[in-house]
Amino acid sequence: MQITIDIDDHIPLFAQLVAQIKQAVLGGSLSPADAMPSIRQLANDLDLNNKTVAKAYRLLERDGVIEAKGYRGSFVHPNAKVNSAIDLNEWALAKLGTITNELRDGGVTDSEIRNAFVKAMNNQNTRDK
């Protein structure tokens, strides 16, 4: 699982972590019953505060993406893929809204934004094949 945190992004660090773990579940790099790194280990690996990672883990547990098993640690929930897709769609919509507003503020028209989005998606689909 590759996680990259952007400290300059306006999205809070814990939210970036939540979104990327959900993406890892949806992408298949995390599977049900996989062990998650400990809070301390992940915080150390990403150079984050333990409380930031703990908050992300609490939200992931609330959303049914991971489950804490006491002293044994946290594991990917059996229904993590379905549960991740639901909330990730909301995250994607918020991210697109932010980008759209930035483009509009820069003088780009809605038509130009739509065309650029379609082109970007087509380029991505070509790259994925």
Overall mean confidence score, pLDDT? 92
Whole-number radius of gyration? 17 Å
Shape: elongated
Identify the CATH class. Answer: Mainly Alpha
Show unreliable segments. none
CATH fold-type name: Arc Repressor Mutant, subunit A
Largest sheet: 2 strands, antiparallel
Widest sheet, order of strands: 1-2
Portion in beta strands: under 5%
The CATH homologous superfamily: Winged helix-like DNA-binding domain superfamily/Winged helix DNA-binding domain
* Category from helices, strands and their pairing: mainly alpha
Give the topology string: H per helix, E per strand.
HHHEEHH
Number of strands: 2
- Continuous helix count: 5
Describe the structure.
The chain has 129 residues and is mainly alpha-helical. It has a single domain (13-128), classed as Arc Repressor Mutant, subunit A (Orthogonal Bundle). The chain is built from five helices and two strands; from the N terminus they run H-H-H-E-E-H-H. It has helices at 13-27, 39-46, 50-62, 80-105, 110-128; strands at residues 66-68, 74-76. Strands 1-2 form a two-stranded antiparallel ribbon. Strand 1 (66-68) and strand 2 form a beta hairpin. Helix 1 (13-27) packs across helix 4. The longest helix is centred in the C-terminal third of the chain and has 26 residues, at 80-105. It is elongated, with a radius of gyration of 17 Å. The chain starts with 12 loop residues before the first helix and ends with a helix. The model has no long low-confidence stretch (mean pLDDT 92).
